[in-house]
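Bit of a strange request maybe. I'm writing a small parser for structure token strings and I need a real example to test against, not something I typed by hand. Could someone generate the tokens for this chain?
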Amino acid sequence: MAESVVRFPGGGLHVPPPLSLYLHLPWCVRKCPYCDFNSHAAQGIPEAAYIDALLADLERALPDIWGRRIHSVFFGGGTPSLFSADGIDRILTGVRTLTQLAPGAEITLEANPGTVEAARFRGFREAGVTRVSLGIQSFDARHLQALGRIHDAAEARRAAELAATHFETFNLDLMYALPGQTLAGALADVDAALEFGPPHLSAYHLTLEPNTPFGHTAPPNLPDDDLAADMQQAVEARLAEAGMQHYETSAYAKPGHASRHNLNYWQFGDYLGIGAGAHSKLSFADRIVRQMRVKHPQQYMDAVKAGAHIADTRTLTRDDLPFEFMMNALRLTEGVPAALFEARTGLPLVVCSAALERARSRGLLERDATRLRPTLQGQRFLNDLLELFLVE
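Reply from user aminoacidic:
Good idea to test on real output. This should exercise your parser:
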């Protein structure tokens, strides 16, 4: 696809943003009915062949990131913990060989409680993984069954124990506003998670995505909007009491344990996405480009061999950039320095002046010339805030 180069005023991006690496491992044991990610139920994983494709993809991408240091790595899926520790080690060895991986880089691997055991966690740690993110979702057996999860409550607790044993920092994913869930039930899940002393916890509102069984063929009976809002506020309060900072829309962390990889997304940093369906955002001196790889795993592996694995490339326009930047930065409860807008987009902040004034006049954005920070109202009604930066 041809790109239309966007020339930025003021000479463009003088310093490239920090760079992260995302690696997509698309297989899972069973597809959950609420999930709209690019994931596929495993019927035998071609691990060696897929790793060959990943490393070939990475090598072909090197001209786009030449001379740049990678500050974080994230294995997402699917269920990356279905891969062997040796396989993860082979991938990370390739990353270290081909790229400038920063010393002390944060390396995160997503794991499903139904696919972990002590030996596997030890192997991941020995391979270089520094952080695991566990998809717990709930510690209640009824809710796990309703969500179609492959693990039970006992496995959830065992996996959390293993994460705390083998990793200095880890994340537990929870969901709230689940089918049939009460306010007390949502808080019980939070209390159960806190027993393991997680340095980081994510709490997501269950949403019904259109192209999923929950969103299309078998929608469950969910708590109403008022109850869901009560759950959100109660979860925030309980985690604040536990000393966890609410630093991003759905993320909470103890001091020093915010996800560096995710922070780079929210601060409009760059990321190279490798693997089936992976997305990239890469900045050059005169343009910012988004890419997407071929989605289906087998088609992706075939396409890599043919050098045709990038399915789409799009250069962001001047009209795109304000919304793209704010869509990320305003997820952060503390926002970002106002100067970051020009540093990451190559555009002066004045291009957003009308939208910024509307946001401030509606009480959605703090009146601070040095910082772009949503008010509490702006955090609660983030979509309304972001819509102000869309160009019609």
